[in-house]
Specification:
mainly beta, globular
Length: 60
């Protein structure tokens, strides 16, 4: 079972990249080895597409 089996659209997530950059946002889906989510960029919602390679995702 992967972490994605426990996530549903709308879940709050915390993402840590391989370089150590951290962000929080809202899970949308996983598509073709990419995380599709919405993150907060200084008060603005940003649609993000992040490669799954080397990232860690936690449900908040």
């Amino acid at each position: 079972m992967s972490v994605f089996d426990a996530l549903v659209e709308g879940d709050q997530i915390h993402v840590i990249t391989a370089s150590g950059h951290q962000d929080t946002g809202v899970f949308l889906r996983v598509e073709s080895d990419f995380l599709i989510w919405v993150k907060n960029n200084e008060g603005t919602a940003v649609y993000a597409i992040t490669s799954l390679e080397g990232i860690t995702i936690f449900k908040v």
